[in-house]
Amino acid sequence: MRPLFKTLLVFTALLVLINCQAENTPQEVDLTKRANIPQRNGTVRQELVLKVAIGAMISPKETIKYYGQLADFIGKKMGKRIELIQRKTYSEVNELIRKQEVDIAFVCSGPYVEGREAFGMEAIAVPLVNGKPYYYAYFIVRKGSGIKKLEDLKGRTFAFTDPLSNTGALVPKYILSRMGYSPEGFFSKVIYTYSHDNSILAVSKALVDGASVDSLIYDYYKKNRPGFVSKTEVIYRSEPYGIPPVVVPPNTPRAIKTKLKEVLFNMHKDPEGKKILMAINIDRFAEPDERIYESVRKMNQWLKDQKR
After folding, report:
1. Would you state the pLDDT for residue 263?
2. 3-state secondary structure (DSSP) of residue 62
3. How far is 234 from 264, CA to CA, in rounded Å?
4. Matching CATH topology for 20-31+134-241 and 46-133+242-292?
5. Total Cβ atoms within 10 A of residue 164
6. d(CA 228, CA 224)
């Protein structure tokens, strides 16, 4: 199937889904397709495989571009073959971590806070971007829409990413709650796209009026594929939040954690590793500090308190 035809088919289906759903009800719109990740032939001893889970911050094929080389580098330094594991939702990835069905995972800050509280998910490293372990929520709209601030989105359509996403759901819900609104009471329609690049695309194609997206993803596209975000603009940047961490399941052996940290913390000193990090706008990896996620915990608690 030709790429143009596939794109048209996906967005035709999205339009039908949006228009056919009831008003004022959050809708789940699956713009993702499972990527076929090539694996080597033959049987490989389980201890020689490093299972790496990737939260659906970006769509499957884009995930391979964004994280593929990074995962391969880790595997090579660990002396193991990489098996990339993807799931549609953040909660599904959290479940893999809880059941210890993966060895390491790249997750969003929201699911990390949830997972740490629920079952002891452990952060072993955080990326530094511009020297800091922080990122932002960007509220984006289509250029020329006339929408200049959040209040202008009242009565319009809006895209969230995943229900557990920090920048893609928690932040806008928290801000609206502080204003005295629920998403359903403020927007005319809410959809879930299940990845930040899909939300950007939905705004670019005027399928929704606005979206809240991860600054790391948006800035990555702005630098590497500016055409992808050229029809959108940022109308609001949130306060900084603790950056999405690299995590391991609870009870991961100390020796494995030590080796993974050694690989990650020294990656920027390796010529190949530095090149990979530069391509995804990361300076280096560092030790995590739980305090950077306190604001995410407070937002979560605020929203839970409002439901009581």
Report:
1. 98
2. helix
3. 32
4. yes
5. 24
6. 9
Residues 155 and 268: their CA atoms lie apart, in Å, by: 47
**Which residues in the chain come in under a pLDDT of 70?**
1-47, 56-63
- Give SS3 for 84: strand
Residues 6+ apart with CB under 8 A from 54: 63, 67, 71, 84, 85, 86, 93, 105, 106
CA-nearest of 149, 128, 127, 120 to 233 is: 149
Residue range 46-133+242-292 forms a domain whose CATH class is alpha beta
Biggest distance spanned by C-alpha atoms of the chain: 58
Q: Would you say 133 and 197 are in contact if contact means Cβ atoms under 8 Å apart? A: no
20-31+134-241 belongs to which CATH class? alpha beta
Q: What is the pLDDT of residue 190?
A: 97
pLDDT at res. 186? 98
159-162-163 Cα angle (round to 5): 100
Enumerate the domain spans of the chain: 20-31+134-241, 46-133+242-292
pLDDT of residue 68: 85
The pLDDT value recorded for residue 55 is 82
Confidence at residue 41, expressed as pLDDT on a 0 to 100 scale = 41
pLDDT for position 56? 65
Residue 247: helix, strand or coil by DSSP?
strand
Distance of CA 11 to the CA centre of its chain: 21
Query: Within 13 A of 72's CA, how many CA atoms are on the CB side?
Result: 13
3-state secondary structure 26-37: CEECCCCCCCCC
Q: Dihedral of the CA atoms 9, 10, 14, 17 (nearest 10)? A: 70
Residue matched to tokens 């880790």: 74
Selection from 146, 102, 149 nearest residue 121 by Cα: 102
